[in-house]
Amino acid sequence: MTEFETVIGLEVHCELSTKTKIFCGCSTKFGAAPNSQVCPVCLGLPGTLPVMNAEALERAILVGLAVGCTIRRRFKFDRKHYYYPDLPKNFQISQYDLPLAHDGRVDLAGAHPVRVKRVHLEEDAGKLVHEGAGQQIATGTAALVDYNRSGMPLLEIVSEPDLREPAEAVAYVKSLQTLVRYLHVSDGNMEEGSLRCDANISVRPKGADELGAKIEIKNMNSFKSIEHALTFEARRQRDALARGETLAQETRLWDDTAGETRSMRSKEAAHDYRYFPEPDLLVFTMDDARLAVIRGRLPELPWTKRLRYVQTLGLTDYDAGVLTSDRTVAEYFEATIAAGAPPKTACNWVSTELLGALHGRKLGIGDSRVAPRQLAALIALIDKATISGKIAKTVFAEMLVSGADPDAVVKAKGLVQITDEDALVTSVRDVLAANPQSVADFKAGKSQTIGFLVGQVMKATGGKANPQAVNKILKEELTR
Known about the structure:
By secondary structure, the protein is an alpha+beta fold. The chain is built from 15 helices and 16 strands.
């Protein structure tokens, strides 16, 4: 039986979060009433002319630089012709043979790099809503069009066919989502359509060099749908080839409800779009000085930061991945260690306690009432044995609500840890006197009993006793 290999290339579309559209002054705010953010330009009315949004262009170049692309010094825009109700001009202003960036790469954690073929800028189309049958276009009762999205600045990042598994494709898209958020060029929200993905997938006999028939899959609007659609389509193509069928190049639609891809149309080639240079926009030039200014806006990139956290701060790959998955989280963590907290301890508090509490409240780290300096101060109280780790969690919970400094909470609630040895000896002896059976069990060799006794001392002291000191004193008293 022939063993097949899956080959995947992705076209990731990212809406840039500029305040206005790419060729007009209409707002790009999400959630407005349908067709309320439109004008003659983005509606494609006769006699209108496009005017380039300079910020959209710079954001696009910033992404190109971040993925290691060569930025073209002269690039142009082209008209891509096709008819669809959500494209009022019957053509889209895009880029064809001279994209603004080319030949880059994205490094996936623990996997091979994925080559980026090109990064180009274009205008987005409107949005069709098919009533009566969800995404069932052929059987729907009506199609409604909203042109608010028409003319949004859309960045397309096209990979080479370097991916082999659906999970790799998901990791690649997640890396790009993290990147555009780090660069502050897009919110990357898939649920709002800010980040969308089309996949080109084929299968071929393992070891073959020639690619199989390229099938494009559209309508994947979540990481789960990307993985499920690619898994289904790879299996469908393998089964067809195993039966001796010939696959035709086509575009298929992912039906999330049915869990399958369905044929949508035959796949177009470049000549079908009748590309020609956009006559209403001049050829753009990028000089060294302007490119240097844009390059200066690049922050430390997530994969570089992750490597630094592992090599310099001694964090695990997993912890570094959690902290660098969001730029604001990484900045909070770094501010905490800058305030004096040890990196590993700060990592545990940020990634587990803080993010866990905020997630439970459906809040982001920017909503935290605990500042990095306050978290560092709380960690310092533990290190100085002023409070125990258990008490620290109680203090932290109060800080999340009130925003108060940790020492103020400790003082107000009388939570200073008991470290006085005479006081602890008295508490230990009282507990031993009250639990003669546990004492007998310990002397009979049941060493685990000491855990129970420690708990009783902590209970008797309201959780304020130093656990390490209690352990030490208990062992001394039990062996006396």
